[in-house]
C-alpha cells in the first residue's frame, strides 16, 4: 500500500512543472504582508539525493531539472524555484533536489506556517528530521486528506493547499475530489493546487468531470506533456489543477511553458496547455 517513494522520480519533468506552479503561488501570497498557512497533504521526505540509488536507478532527473540547471536564459517565472535548488547545491554540482516541503520552507517568511503530512514509514522520519528545528512547521504522520478537514480554515483566513498523492491507489483519483470538496466547504477562499499524472487519459477526463460537478468555480488547468497520450505503461504528461489561482498565474504559465517545453522536450513531442475548467 505504501511502496511508492518519490525519490525514484525526483527532479523529473513533472516535478519541474509542479514546483514551478507551487513557487509562483507562494510568491503571489507574499505580496501581502499578512501571514498564511501552507498545507502539504503528501509531503514526502523533503529532500532527495540525485546521486542516490533511487534517483540513479531511473535517471528521470536527467531529462528534468538537469536540463535547466546550467542554463543562463532562465525565465523570471522560474527564478524563485531555481533559487531554492541552488540553495541546496551551493557548490554548483546538482546533488540534491528539494521536494515541495523544502521549496515552501525556503520561500515562506518567518511568520508564515507550514503543515506537512506524510504516512510513508521511511519518508516520515526523514521529513520530521528535516524540519526538527523549524518553529513554523508541524510535521504529522497522518492521512493528508484528513488534514483538509481538521486544519481548515486557517486562523488567518489565508492558505495555500498542495495536494500531491502518488496515485498508487486507484482510490486516490476519487479521494482528491472528496478532499477538495471537504476543504472547500470549510475554506472556500483558499488556493488549492492538485497535481496529477497522465498515465491513462480517461482517468483524468473522469476526474475533471467529477470536479466540474462539485459546483466549485475558478478552476484552472495547467498541463505539460512529453509524449503523446498512450495506453502503454508510463506517464506521458502531468498537470496542476488550481482552484482560486492568483490572478497572475494563468499568464505566467502561458509565458513560461513554451520555454520549458523547448528545453525539457527538445525533440518537440508532447504538448502544453493552460485553460479554465470552470471560469469565475
TrEMBL record:
Any one GO CC term of the record: cytosol
The enzyme's first-digit EC class, named in words, is transferase
Q: Which is an annotated Pfam family here?
A: RsmJ
- What positions constitute the catalytic site? 164 (proton acceptor)
One Gene Ontology MF term: 23S rRNA (adenine(2030)-N(6))-methyltransferase activity
Report the domain of life of the source organism: Bacteria
**InterPro entries, per database record:** DNA_methylase_N6_adenine_CS (IPR002052), RlmJ (IPR007473), SAM-dependent_MTases_sf (IPR029063)
The chemistry this enzyme catalyses reads: adenosine(2030) in 23S rRNA + S-adenosyl-L-methionine = N(6)-methyladenosine(2030) in 23S rRNA + S-adenosyl-L-homocysteine + H(+)
Instruction: List the keywords (alphabetical).
Output: Methyltransferase, RNA-binding, rRNA processing, S-adenosyl-L-methionine, Transferase
List residues binding S-adenosyl-L-methionine: 19, 42, 100, 118, 143-144, 164
The EC number(s) given in the record are 2.1.1.266
Hey, where's the site called Interaction with substrate rRNA on this chain?
A: 4
The processes (GO biological process) annotated in the record are:
rRNA base methylation
Q: Does the keyword RNA-binding apply?
A: yes
| Subunit annotation | Monomer.
Family, as annotated: Belongs to the RlmJ family.
The entry's function note states: Specifically methylates the adenine in position 2030 of 23S rRNA.
Q: Which PANTHER family match?
A: RIBOSOMAL RNA LARGE SUBUNIT METHYLTRANSFERASE J
Instruction: List the protein's name.
Output: Ribosomal RNA large subunit methyltransferase J
Species for this entry: Xenorhabdus koppenhoeferi
Amino acid at each position: 500500500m505504501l511502496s511508492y517513494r518519490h525519490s525514484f522520480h525526483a527532479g523529473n519533468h513533472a516535478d519541474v512543472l509542479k514546483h514551478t506552479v507551487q513557487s509562483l503561488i507562494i510568491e503571489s501570497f507574499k505580496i501581502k504582508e499578512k501571514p498564511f498557512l501552507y498545507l502539504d497533504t503528501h509531503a514526502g521526505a523533503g529532500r532527495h539525493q540525485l546521486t542516490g540509488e533511487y534517483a540513479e536507478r531511473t535517471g528521470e532527473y536527467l531529462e528534468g531539472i538537469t536540463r535547466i540547471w546550467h542554463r543562463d536564459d532562465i525565465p523570471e517565472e522560474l527564478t524563485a524555484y531555481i533559487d531554492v535548488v541552488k540553495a541546496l547545491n551551493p557548490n554548483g554540482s546538482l546533488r540534491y533536489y528539494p521536494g515541495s516541503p523544502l521549496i515552501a520552507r525556503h520561500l515562506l517568511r518567518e511568520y508564515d506556517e507550514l503543515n506537512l503530512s506524510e504516512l510513508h514509514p521511511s519518508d516520515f522520519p526523514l521529513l520530521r528530521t528535516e524540519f526538527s528545528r523549524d518553529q513554523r512547521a508541524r510535521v504529522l504522520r497522518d492521512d493528508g486528506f484528513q488534514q483538509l478537514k481538521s486544519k481548515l480554515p486557517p486562523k488567518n483566513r489565508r492558505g495555500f493547499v498542495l495536494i500531491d498523492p502518488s496515485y498508487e491507489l486507484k482510490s486516490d483519483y476519487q479521494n482528491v475530489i472528496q478532499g477538495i470538496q471537504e476543504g472547500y466547504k470549510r475554506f472556500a477562499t483558499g488556493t488549492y493546487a492538485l497535481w496529477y499524472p497522465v498515465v491513462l487519459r480517461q482517468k483524468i477526463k473522469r476526474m475533471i468531470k467529477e470536479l466540474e460537478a462539485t459546483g466549485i468555480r475558478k478552476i484552472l488547468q495547467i498541463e505539460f506533456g512529453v509524449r503523446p497520450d498512450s495506453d502503454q505503461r508510463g506517464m506521458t504528461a502531468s498537470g496542476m489543477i488550481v482552484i482560486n489561482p492568483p490572478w497572475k498565474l494563468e499568464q505566467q504559465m502561458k509565458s513560461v511553458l513554451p520555454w520549458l517545453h523547448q528545453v525539457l522536450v527538445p525533440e518537440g513531442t508532447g504538448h502544453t496547455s493552460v485553460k479554465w475548467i470552470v471560469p469565475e
